[in-house]
Amino acid sequence: MRQKLLSRLICLALLAPGVLATAQESPQSPSAPSRADILRGEYGPWRANNDLLSYDLDIRVDPEKKFISGKNTIRFKMLKDDTRIQLDLFANLNVDKILFGSTELKYTRELGTVFVDFPAPLKKNSVQSIEFYYSGSPQETGRFGGISFRKDPAGRHWVTTACQGVGASVWWPNKDQQQDEVENMRLRVAVPSALTDVSNGRLVGKTDLGDGYTRYDWAISYPINNYCVSLNIGHYEHFGDRLGDLTMDFYCLPENLEKAKRQFAQAKPMMEAFQKYFGEYPFKRDGYKLIEVPYSGMEHQSAVAYGNRFANGYLERDWTGVGVSLKFDFIIIHESAHEWFGNSITAGDISDMWIHEGWATYAECVYVEAMFGRDDALKYVNGYKSKVRNRQPIITARGVNQTPSQDQYFKGALFLNTLRSVIDDDKEWWKLLRAYCDRFKYRNIMTEDIVAFFNQQTGKNLTPIFDQYLRRAALPALELRFQESDGSVSYRWKTDIKDFAMPVKVGRRTDWRVIQPTTEWKTMKTGMKKEEFEVATDLYYIEVVNDEDAIREVVSKYVDARERIDPKAAEELFTSDADQLVSSGEWRRGRDEVVRGAMASSRSTGGKRSITVESIRMVTPDVAIVDGRYELTGLAGGATRSMWTTLVLKRTEKGWRISAIRNMLPAAPASSR
Ligand SMILES: [Zn+2]
User: Contact at 8 Å (CB) between 599 and 562?
Assistant: First the structure.
């Protein structure tokens, strides 16, 4: 179930090849998807022909032999007449048999995929059920281990799963994708009787099997992502609490009981803060659990995995480096935020995984605001800037199992902080967030759904803003041009999205003024000096480029290229029709001749050179004249030379470029500065 929205979205994806092309064109984008990625990533015909209803996973785990065996009973509804469905199970695990009633079904395995064939077509709208028997020693793999058979510090068995990315099919057979979720699930786990299994949902049964094993029966009464289904098998100690009628249960190793009681006290205020802003905890019937594990943590639905050393920060580090992270336990807050963002609202394809990570990271900031105030929240979210790369778009190619870069977390959160500033009405913002959580509760959505929702709710066209931040690599750049003579500033956005228009706050921090830049130049009077004029870059995640700084940078790169005798670097700084009149009266015409001549003279004179910019005049918005003192020191015999240089720079598609240089010897007496 939970796949209604997607059919429309698949059509959108097909109609918008540009979106996919962007990711593929970027130089850092991965090579063509492998067959394995297509099998895992594509919502192909044998996945799309059915709708999951429930799983009943019944397994026995032998920690000594690192061996799993059992079956998954998979119920589904056919959406069309067909004879085949596609399931997934890692190739190293054995398919023992697949039963359809009493009939043993034929199947074909290809890498991690199992195509299951029925003897006769299953009818559209019919509800079907198969029993998928399997066994084997699953491999430990991926960032969090997939499934790991460990020992705790006291030497007792400790088996845990964390298979996001790798895929749940690393340890159990299922329809391993994100679009379609079961409506509910049973999880029956038999473990050696000295151990306990804590999984998702409610414990509804515990049976001594009489052979040294005890079976724990867990009932999950909500839709659940495959990767959230988890085992936590260990020597667990339990304590509990309540928040109203929500049960909160905590599991840790016995040695850590006191530490856990102290640290897990943060769960309650976290829950209160999140419920205030995002609505009721989405899995109340299943309760909330926090379970100690040997890795850092994971958002397992109603059974959040915790391994953050019972200390604040993230693995005892100040995670955003601005002094706020150490006020709380990152894993408790971040992973629990996923109950709303990732578990309740799920991305239909990992291409749009910012729907989990960007939103959960932003939820950290909401938590900080609720607990410690707005100033700390702004400090905290802006601390994430140092982690953003802006090298690839946040949203990757769809249907090919392509995980987005880390920017999905940090840039995702900074984007949502920016969106709040665009809305510029906190009451409205909190209302929107709450409505978003309600609207998409228990659904699998794509970014298009979010954009449509925000556009509709605000009556604004926010599509270009979403597109620039999520579907393009570069940040929007606010270009500024100051005319101090009449106290005015010209401004525009430089973006990849042509109709990008986003308001931004500028002027004085104590009295921001909202301007509405577009990609065309606009001018306003400020009566302010360039140094006084600020842009609210803590409220909007943007780049600010003012022409003077950009022009100074080109001039200094030119000097640097001559100093290092680097013709390649120099070439990039000139327009193709650039010319130069050197002090001897000789002309160099065209970029190649200018660069060749400059390199030759650097080589022959040696010494050290510098240009001190004395003035920058904008003669049009796209042409600037720069006057500077050009100094050469350490020439042969210790001589120095000094001359005036005038450079003409033009604004091009690639930024400011030098189009003419005039050198005049000698320089006037020492600069007035
Ligand atoms: Zn996360």
Answer: yes
